[in-house]
Amino acid sequence: MAIRLNQNSLHDLPATVAAPGYARAALGAGIVHFGVGNFHRAHQAAYLDALFAKGLGHDWAIVGAGVMPGEERLRSVLEAQDWLTLHVAQSAGASEARVIGSMIDYLPIADGAAIVARLVDPAIRIVSLTVTEGGYFLDAEGGFDPEHPAILADTLNPEAPATVFGLIIKALRLRREAGTAPFTVMSCDNLPHNGTLTRGTVVGLARLVDPSFADWIASSVAFPNGMVDRITPATSDRERALAREEFGVADGHPVFSEDFIQWVLEDDFPQGRPPLEAVGVTFVADVTPYEHMKLRILNASHAMLAYPAALLGITYAHDAVVHPLIAAMLGKIQREEIIPGVAQVPEITPEDYFGITLRRFANPKIADTIARLCYDGANRQPKFIVPALRHALDAGLVIDGLALACALWCRYCAGTREDGSVIEPNDPAWDRLNAVALAARREPGLWLAQSDIYGSLGKDERLQAAFARALDALWRDGVEATVSAFVA
């Protein structure tokens, strides 16, 4: 019988599952985190768990928070488990399971009063976020979008905000009035200059209501940039069964991830921070080169292999990355169009990083689905593909491969695979994307004209011509023939 995970059952865990090596009752809250999903629990929460097990930083425990109704189910699961999570880190040949105990509370979802009350607590010195790439209210050029309906709603009702950023602003105002130092706001999302973007959204929203207070936030609140990395698939019945059958633990929402983990942070925490360097976090003055390497090599590679794999009916990333045509396409695009524009970091060259990325993708234990990688392309493409395209165009590099990657996404959004089977809607903007993709079969420029995705880049004549050629070939010759011709 599998042991039901909770605080009282920790002493009954199987020998193959490590328990938190510290007294959770003695932990004190120092961080409020918005967006308690799988990645957060396998990354930030895992780092803090390792730190606490070393006897360090016990006043930096996590309090979860969320504003989206969809977060309620996970919160209910975690509440029944006393906020504990079974995390399994997997390499191709081994698995390591441990129970993570670094979260000690999780505020009621969308309860603005409860969230703000915790945010104004002087013990809270960091507010962190994993609200997804699409959760920052950005326009096509990467700036703050003041016209977003959620932003307009918070502007009209600043005392009862509904967004993460509105709640942060209200709490900062109350802390300032009480003479409490402002907390640091730390994004943990896969975005270039995520701290800078977070500052832009917080300050931009505040400026719509109180320009002078917005100026104070801009000058007084720290928003460090950071690069985060760990492949963490979604949890399904497969993972729940593995937790029970292989590790003897009944967890309603266990987290399985790869064994690789990385976190690079700018060291800008005026109110202090946990000593995460003791567990492998890299603190730097400027995270930019690390961001570029990860976003343009790892994330862009995920985005480039996902759509041809989906069109060919491939289910898992580890199968896609060893498919001869997809592997050859990915390697050619990276080495000719992306890697030449990526700067080296002290620890590794871009070429070596790409090699590590391919090995990580090929890990069959992760079972990362192509459907997950395809999801939310309207938000991911502007973050992972469009910047690489812009750099390649500015540098005079070839762009045929990146244009093909855009065309493959367009072909995917048309809603059918190569064998004619239907692709289920897989994007919050699916209805629009599907309509534009079908129309682009006759008029390719319509796809690039989506300004929220491509911005001004969609008007570039080189990109328009290369995209049109690629999309026409995909419809006329099919995925395999088109990719084969590109690789050749």
What does this 3D model show about the protein?
Helix content is 47%, strand content 12%. By secondary structure, the protein is of the alpha/beta class. The strands form 4 sheets. Strands 7-4-3-8-9 form a 5-stranded parallel beta sheet, sandwiched between helices. A 4-stranded mixed beta sheet has the order 2-6-5-12. Helix 12 (324-338) crosses helix 22 (479-487), helix 17 packs across helix 18 and helix 17 packs across helix 21. The protein is globular and about 65 Å long. The model has no long low-confidence stretch (mean pLDDT 96).
**CATH homologous superfamily identity of the largest domain:** NAD(P)-binding Rossmann-like Domain
DSSP helical segment count? 22
Per CATH, the class of the largest domain reads Alpha Beta
What structural category characterises the helix and strand content? alpha/beta
**Strand percentage, roughly?**
5-15%
Separation of the first and last Cα atoms: 55 Å
Mean pLDDT, nearest integer? 96
CATH topology of the largest domain: Rossmann fold
- Main pleated-sheet profile: 5 strands, parallel
Helix content: 40-55%
**What's the total count of β strands?**
14
The name of the CATH architecture of the largest domain is 3-Layer(aba) Sandwich
Strand order of the largest sheet: 7-4-3-8-9
Poorly predicted ranges (pLDDT <50, ≥5 residues)? none
Instruction: Domain count, please report it.
Output: 2
Any idea what the radius of gyration is?
A: 23 Å
Instruction: Tell me, briefly, the overall form.
Output: globular
